[in-house]
Amino acid sequence: MRTPNQYIRDLGKHVKDQKGVFILYSILRLLVVLIMIRTIILGNYEATVTCLLVLALFFIPSLLEETLKIKIPPLLEGIMYCFIFAAEILGELGHFYTQFPIWDTMLHTLNGFLFAAVGFSTVDILNRTSKNIKLSPLYLTMVAFCFSMTIGVLWEFFECGADIFLHQDMQKDFIVDHFQSVTLDETHSQEVVRVEDITGTVIHTGSGDITINGGYLDIGILDTMKDLLVNFIGAIVFCSAGYAFLKYGESKKAAAKLVSGLTLKPETSAEEDVEAEEEMTE
Fold first, then answer.
1. Of 147, 154, 150, 152, whose CA–CA distance to 239 is shortest?
2. For the CA atoms of the chain, what is the radius of gyration?
3. pTM
4. For the chain, which residues make up each domain, given as ranges?
């Protein structure tokens, strides 16, 4: 277990080595604190809790490095901080999800990309350090792809649970002007009945009627499938680069630069770091 002096020394080295990430982290953290103070003044305590959650999430990279004995590349760490800020502060508190419909799509695409990187690097570390197992590049990238898609599915489960039990609307709705269904087939012979050119619907409730212009309200099904699709695209993009890197090595410079900047690495000693630097300079 590290002593306080060792922890401070390691923290100082981390800041020195990743000065850009530290500046980004400090700016984002300061912004969250200022926003939190404003939410307290306005009495919006639900938003205050969100700010506290974001501040806690900002510790995740450091906790992962400390607990798992790994190194998170500066590029990946910076993206993680920006992702948290974009999802919670801008998306939830800034209402970017409703003001910019593409915001949710962008974050889900990035989510698929990042978790493919995490899955890839986790298996790659085991592959490199194991003496008994040697996975092929195709198998390794397939595992990374499946890991990313699994995380995406689990997140959709979370969104559905929040909508059902917490009465949220995380699975955003779409207004649709057509659909097809066998439920409307009066002969019960599973004939598809297509309903087109829906100009509006009326929902009858105990407190009155709600009119929806332009179609009917699809409650989250299309949003869920869209999220999984863009998660799929993000995972495919990274896995393609990861496969090219494993298969062809440094000859694919773009893939090598991307993969090395986004994959986790096992923690090394100071002596190993010096040796690695000497190898790079030779």
1. 147
2. 24
3. 0.82
4. 1-100, 101-171+220-282, 174-218
